[in-house]
């Protein structure tokens, strides 16, 4: 499995972010080709102090090639371009192969 994570710093207008994200952005995301699962939260907390992020999004793909293909598709480019419509604080995007531990 391969994971894409988007970390959103605090926006200028949190209510606009929440409303736009749920009403407009997530329906776009849900139609990404090759997307296996996705989840998000606005309840980001830090163990100590204030969390540097307002929201988090996680997407799962079969592998890196599937994630790259999804992001490079016409729909993926539309999803990426839409971020500017709500994320005034920007976005940090990371991705990685998932490794499973034992224990």
Q: Which percent band covers the strand fraction?
A: 15-25%
* Poorly predicted parts: none
Largest sheet descriptor: 4 strands, antiparallel
CATH topology: Alpha-Beta Plaits
Spatial extent as radius of gyration? 14 Å
CATH arch. level architecture: 2-Layer Sandwich
* Average pLDDT taken over every residue: 97
Shape: globular
Task: Provide a concise account of the structure shown.
The chain has 103 residues and is of the alpha+beta class.
How would you explain this protein's 3D organization?
The protein is α+β, with helices and mostly antiparallel strands and about 100 residues long. The protein has one domain: Alpha-Beta Plaits. The protein contains three helices and four strands; from the N terminus they run E-H-E-E-H-H-E. A four-stranded antiparallel beta sheet has the order 2-3-1-4. The longest helix is centred in the first third of the chain and has 16 residues, at about 15-30. It is globular and about 35 Å long. The two termini are about 20 Å apart.
Give descriptors for this structure.
103 residues; alpha+beta; Alpha-Beta Plaits; 4-stranded antiparallel beta sheet; globular
What's the helix and strand layout?
Blueprint: E1 2-8, H1 14-29, E2 37-41, E3 55-61, H2 64-72, H3 74-82, E4 92-97
Antiparallel strand pairs: 1-3, 1-4, 2-3
Helix pairs in contact: 2-3
InterPro entries: Dimeric_a/b-barrel, EthD_dom
Organism: Dactylosporangium aurantiacum
Domain EthD: 11-88
């Amino acid at each position: 499995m391969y994971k894409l994570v988007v970390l959103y710093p605090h926006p200028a207008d949190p209510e606009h972010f929440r409303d736009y994200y749920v009403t407009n952005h997530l329906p776009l995301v849900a139609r990404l080709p090759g997307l296996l699962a996705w989840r998000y939260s606005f309840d980001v907390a830090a163990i100590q102090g204030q969390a540097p992020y307002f929201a988090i999004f996680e997407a799962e793909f079969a592998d890196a090639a599937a994630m790259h293909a999804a992001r490079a598709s016409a729909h993926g480019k539309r999803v990426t371009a839409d971020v500017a419509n709500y994320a005034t604080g920007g976005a940090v995007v990371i991705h990685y192969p998932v490794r499973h531990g034992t224990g």
